[in-house]
Amino acid sequence: MNLLWGSKVERKALSTLRIWAFPAWEGSCGKGMGINMKICRVEELKGNEVLDKPVMTSDYTILLASGTVLKPEYIEKLKDFEILEVAVREESADIQTIEILKSEVEEIFTVKVKEILEKHTYHHNENLMELCITADRIFSEIVSEENVIEQVFDIKERSSDIYEHSISLCTLATLTALKLKLPEDSIRSIGIGCLLHDIGLRYLTIPYENQDVSLLSDVEMAEYKKHTIYGYTALKNESWISDISKNIILYHHERLDGSGFPLKAASIPYECKIVNVCDAFDELICGVGCERVKVHEAVEYLKTFKNIKFDGTIVDVFLEFTAVYPADSQVMTNEGEVGVVIRQNKDFPNRPVLLMLYDKNGVKYEDRIIKDLMQENHIFIEKVLN
Fold first, then answer.
1. 138: CB partners within 8 A, 6+ apart
2. Topology of domain 103-320, CATH
């Protein structure tokens, strides 16, 4: 399931597609400035190019966000809808992106999870056991990285594909649990639970994909909120899945203040509290069932509801490894300058290193100017531009 295309609403929207560029810097390729942009014909795309400007409808609905890696299926859909050109990036070695899982590895896992889940029907759970192997491999990939629990990672907005979301959630929750020093068997159970957490969505008959679920009718919303119960019920008698994993399926939308669903439970198993934080964050930055927001906005959301909806200790640990401004973000400082984030500062995920592009008057810098916000204490990021 590709949540960027497929519904009648989206097909209508795609008929008015256009390329959006920042008005102040449209067409600037910035040679030697750390990031270059070029207009590329869709028929010439080979895959793995990175969008520099989002693809949007005429009413400014983002269909492919800036920073999206163009997978082959995305390119084919662009061709299907007769999109002729897109703006893609030519990134220099200046930009250092640190990923929890390498993009190519994550894509392999996503394809596998999609293959398994799309074959699944209610109470026919034999094939789902393969997800245990996938969760174990994700765990092994993460722990094989040197100093993985000490890094700050560039977690970026992606498409709202539900399978990508499951892999991302598994990755985020596994790393959070590692940093919290949970037992290995608990961490592996968390991973399996994450891959299965939305299994109940497969049993719904209402239209919920590709939209903000808050816009559903009362009847549809009541049905949507049952997906956790449907998933839990389908797997509760399976001996191969742990109670931790089963609870994640049931509790992943619950909140400490009782505002979650469907149980409105204030008492939530600890492993589920970890998943709740990671799931809320990933849904926000990917637009899964909600309007997509920027990473720094999702960070602020977690901070706002720390110790209200979410466990405060878990939020703190999660934010330790989450770059507020991921590498390649174009930002404006309090001094009016524009720069691009080229790398992170360990232990300070909100104070990255910038390669400056434009001065406060919008004039492009000819010299290579680097500003480390750990050293430039008077400079702050005021706005994210892409």
1. 101, 109, 167, 170, 171, 174, 191
2. Hypothetical protein af1432 (1.10.3210)
